[in-house]
Amino acid sequence: MANKPTFTKEEALEYHAKPVPGKIAIEVTKPVRNSRDLSIAYSPGVAIPCIEIDKDEQLAYTYTNKANLVGVVTDSTAVLGLGTLKPVAGKPVMEGKAVLFKKFAFIDAYDIELKERDPEKIIEIVEAISPTFGGINLEDIKAPKCFDIEKEAQKRCDIPIFHDDQHGTAIISSAAIINWAKLEGKKLEDLRVVIIGAGAAGLAAAEMYKALGIKNIVLTDSKGAITKKRNDLNKYKEPWAVDEDIETLADALKGADVVVGNSVANCITQEMVKTLNPNALLLTLANPDPEIKPELALEVRPDLYIGTGRSDYPNQVNNVLGFPFIFRGALDTHAKAVNMEMKIAAAKALADLAEKPVPQYVKDAYGGVDLKFGKDYILPKPFDRRVFVDESVAVARAAIESGVARIKVDDVDKWVEGYKQHLIKMLKEKEGIDYDAE
């Protein structure tokens, strides 16, 4: 296990305050050296691209930063594990999201904290600002209103509207399930999967697992298993009610092949763990404290595969393995949305990469530990920069083949190979990393 990063409150505050307040800024990408440059950058030269874009809106992807700009939008009603905060109090998290976009996928992102909690008004705001961006990342908006906001905003906008709190965990955990099934020789359609927590992440995970071909999916919430016997289910949970004679979480876990926790700390006991199927996959993703500590689970079931949301245990399910590269592929194809085909492509790309030999620079970033495909390594590490190339390419291909891309492509394979080489070159120029490094 890697050592858990430690810092004091004072260190965290100083990091955010110095040398300048906050974590992001704007940079100018064109020269402004003299009066000629200024007249092109602003008046009168700027009128020329304005007129061209007015004739054809898609030219905004050519003449502005729309092709590389994401808006991170929140109402601060579900900020990390802190719950509802004042709108501006969510800003450090949204700035942090922008940092991850830039660091991992070279995407410019800017945070927008809304002093508005009404879902319909939030949808209207997102629609109103959508011409500015190539995509919008909804963030830290509580369930269940987040479902309606994303769905309706996507209907009204012609750019990707992506609520990462829903789909990020679904995509990364899907990659983990795919690789666990490979290692155990299981078919996805034969699995019993239990999802603990029927909020944004849990319900999105259920949708994605179903799309992958998993048929036996049981969800639980704070009141127990979601079954047809219950009469207290909302419209989001009701479709997932199963016709089984189970009531409690303990009932649901019996005989499970895969357990995905999107719930609260310490809700799984060792007795529950004992009832899982042999060599089951247990993903305890509550942060900072998981549904059961891995060491407690392994104490009674050493055969288990275990993943968490934390960096100090193997198999971290980290959303940074998903959203930067999903948006990279979406932006570079001028996609209208992020659809299920793109999400599945992202998960499969992550799963495939974990099977490949790990470069030394990645091992060095994690204390020199030897990383090989197996029980303690079923997902790539966030600092494996091959993720940038492989996942972005897979998402871009899926966008083209599923029809949500706006770019015109005659030969998909040829375009994809050229795009891959473009990303490899970008990685080399910006970070000095060779894609094929050993």
How would you describe this protein?
This protein is α/β, with parallel strands linked by helices. The two termini are 22 Å apart. The strands form 2 sheets. Strands 7-6-5-8-9-10 form a 6-stranded mixed β-sheet. The chain has a 4-stranded parallel β-sheet with strand order 2-1-3-4, with helices on both faces. The chain is 42% helix and 10% strand.
Question: Which terms would index this structure?
Answer:
Rossmann fold; six-stranded mixed β-sheet; 10 strands; globular; four-stranded parallel β-sheet; 438 residues; 17 helices; alpha/beta; 3 domains; single chain
Describe the structure concisely.
This protein is α/β, with parallel strands linked by helices. The protein is built from 17 helices and ten strands. Helices cover 42% and strands 10% of the residues.
